[in-house]
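cron nightly-structures :: item 1 of 1
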Amino acid sequence: MKLRAHLFDLNQSLCCGQVFRWEPGNDQWWFGVIYDHVVKIRQDDGELEFFVSPEIEDPKEIISLYFRLDDDLESIYKRITKDSYIEEAIENARGLRLIRQDPWECMISFIISQNTQIPKIKRSIETIAQRYGTKLNWDGKDFYTFPTPEQLSSAKIYELKEGFDKGGCALGYRAKYVLSSALLLKNNSLGLSLEEFREMPYDHAHKILQESFCGIGPKVADCIMLFSMDKLEACPLDTWIRKIILNLYFKNKKVNDRKIREFCSEYFGEFAGYAQEYLFCNRLKLCQYF
């Protein structure tokens, strides 16, 4: 199936640190699992070619929603282009779109991501999917859904904690955070679903995520809200973004994270999350300015 996609760069969107389970194949194909479906997708100029398995009634809808093809990028660019730094970042990654992930998979992925390199994050997440998720077979190859809270709550803490060499998922101290999150949602102890966070104001959702789930601080909460809960004002502060903002906008003055978030919110406005992602993708070039 084919779908026209205006102002969209598939490779940029999949390679900018917001998702961890997509793998490249031959002939520019990408393979991934969106919710409970295997997706094979590639881009030829402004057209997406893709296959979804198992088949669904409207496969174009799942692709459009996941890759946020409904976002008006031209309008967003106008809103966030405040200076030459962000202008350069947009030019170098034009067509990058934020991805609308499943909140549960996104939450666990970014809990795991703390203080960890991307190759290890990807391997840990894939190991969790293979061990506790549901197997899907497409074109002779096995894929795995990300396990539901019910499925993941059956895990033993040592299975999640131990290293790959011992047959574990190599989560270390993060294992207890992952398991407690699964149990919290399985038992409905929160009293609401993660999908309901989409309807909350940003500040309230940010606060509840940190208060309710172990292992979620301000940065991880912002990642979850930006990449899965439609909070485009969320601005995750990792080491790179903190360094860029402090050096380019505060001239390396000592400023705490709260002040940095306030600045990003006021300066970039309701699409600060998009600004953050473009700055992150252009981080190596931007660092040449300081």
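cron nightly-structures :: done
The first strand starts at residue 2 and ends at 4.
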